[in-house]
Specification:
about 130 residues; alpha+beta; two-stranded antiparallel ribbon; 6 helices; elongated; cell membrane; membrane; transmembrane; transmembrane helix; RDD domain-containing protein
């Protein structure tokens, strides 16, 4: 659900467009198709960071599933911890293979932590 929300919110900013690019080899300008992925990553980071930091460690998707992100000792995560978790999550998700590894890691980890949880010392727990 969270990925759908991020996709809908960021879609006006992530459309495909054409940009003029200068080719130094030929000394000419030409049109290149460019994707505005930066805005999608920024919106994804802000979404996860702000919800986790300021909404009891929950996004709308986690709230529906009765889950929340907590510190490893069970306490609420802080703003910095939520930011680190979100940065690592967005960077790993932006790279195809690492995003897949981040999700699969949960299956083999004894504490069921994804890589972004390990980086930020967080756990996803029942709410």
């Amino acid at each position: 659900m969270d990925a759908v929300i991020v996709a809908v919110v960021s879609s006006p900013f992530t459309y495909e467009s054409w940009s003029a690019v200068y080719d130094e080899r030929t000394g000419t300008w030409h049109a290149e198709q460019a994707s505005h992925w930066f805005w999608g990553l920024l919106i994804g980071f802000l979404y996860y960071w702000l919800f986790h930091a300021y909404w009891n460690g929950q996004t709308p998707g986690k709230k529906i599933l009765h889950m929340r992100v907590a510190r490893e000792d069970g306490g609420p995560i802080g703003v910095g911890q939520a930011a680190l978790r979100s940065v690592v999550y967005v960077v790993l998700t932006a790279t195809c293979c690492l995003g897949f590894l981040d999700l699969v890691w949960i299956l083999f980890d004894r504490r069921k932590q994804a890589l972004h949880d390990k980086a930020a010392s967080t756990l996803v727990v029942d709410a």
